[in-house]
UniProtKB/TrEMBL annotation:
Residues 1-23, 26-52 form the 4Fe-4S ferredoxin-type domain. The keyword Iron-sulfur applies. GO terms for molecular function: 4 iron, 4 sulfur cluster binding; metal ion binding; oxidoreductase activity. PROSITE patterns: 4FE4S_FER_1, 4FE4S_FER_2. Keywords: 4Fe-4S, Iron, Iron-sulfur, Metal-binding. The keyword Glycoprotein does not apply. This is 4Fe-4S ferredoxin iron-sulfur binding domain protein. Signal peptide: none annotated. Coiled coil: none annotated. It comes from the Archaea. It comes from Methanocaldococcus fervens (strain DSM 4213 / JCM 15782 / AG86) (Methanococcus fervens).
């Protein structure tokens, strides 16, 4: 998963990530060790700021 610069840190991706691989600190940060690239976070991003 790649978080784009347009991320505003809304937290939708955090809520829907089944592996709890995302945190927000002003923007979303993906823990690549936990992420399985399922793409659920990208589907729930309201501004398409995550590339699966």
């Amino acid at each position: 998963m790649e978080v784009l610069e347009k991320c505003v840190g809304c937290g939708n991706c955090v809520v829907f990530c089944p592996k709890k691989a995302i945190k927000t600190y002003g923007v979303a940060i993906v823990d690549k060790n936990k992420c399985t690239n399922c793409g659920i976070c990208a589907r729930y991003c309201p501004i398409d700021a995550i590339n699966p």
